[in-house]
């Protein structure tokens, strides 16, 4: 059971890293080109961890202008939250 769990975690990590590599823009890839990162990720356990820790940058940048984006207006989530609907009952 323990070996199966370790194998499942390793495969999940591999699949997640591959999809993350494909979805990451080229400008955010660090260290190696994307093609070499693909090969590195195929190395069991070490490759996906290297990609997640070293391969891409996860930086949050505020929107241009330095001010946060305005919040969308409140919209009811369902008919029981909509005052116009409740008035019609």
Features:
89 residues, mainly alpha
Task: Please characterize this protein's 3D structure.
Helix 1 (2-23) runs antiparallel to helix 2 and helix 1 (2-23) packs parallel to helix 3 (46-55). The protein has a domain at 2-59. The mean pLDDT is 83. The longest helix is centred in the N-terminal third of the chain and has 22 residues, at 2-23. 51% of the residues lie in helices and 0% in strands. The chain has helices spanning 2-23, 34-41, 46-55, 83-87. It has 89 residues and is mainly alpha-helical. The protein contains 4 helices and no strands. The radius of gyration is 22 Å and the shape is elongated.
Summarize the structure.
This protein is 51% helix and 0% strand. It is an all-alpha fold. The protein has a domain at 2-59.
Structural class: mainly alpha
How many DSSP helices?
4
> What is the string of SSEs from the N terminus onward?
HHHH
| β-sheet strand percentage | under 5%
List the helices and strands and how they pair.
Blueprint (H helix, E strand, L loop, with lengths): L1 H22 L10 H8 L4 H10 L27 H5 L2
Helix pairs in contact: 1-2, 1-3, 2-3
């Amino acid at each position: 059971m323990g070996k199966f769990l370790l194998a499942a975690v390793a495969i999940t990590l591999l699949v997640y890293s591959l999809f993350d590599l494909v979805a990451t823009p080229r400008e955010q890839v660090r260290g190696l080109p994307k093609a070499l990162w693909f090969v590195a990720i195929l190395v069991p356990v070490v490759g996906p961890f290297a990609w997640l820790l070293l391969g891409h940058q996860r930086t949050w940048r505020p929107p241009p202008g330095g001010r946060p984006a305005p919040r969308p207006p409140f919209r009811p989530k369902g008919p029981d939250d909509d005052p116009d609907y409740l008035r019609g009952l």
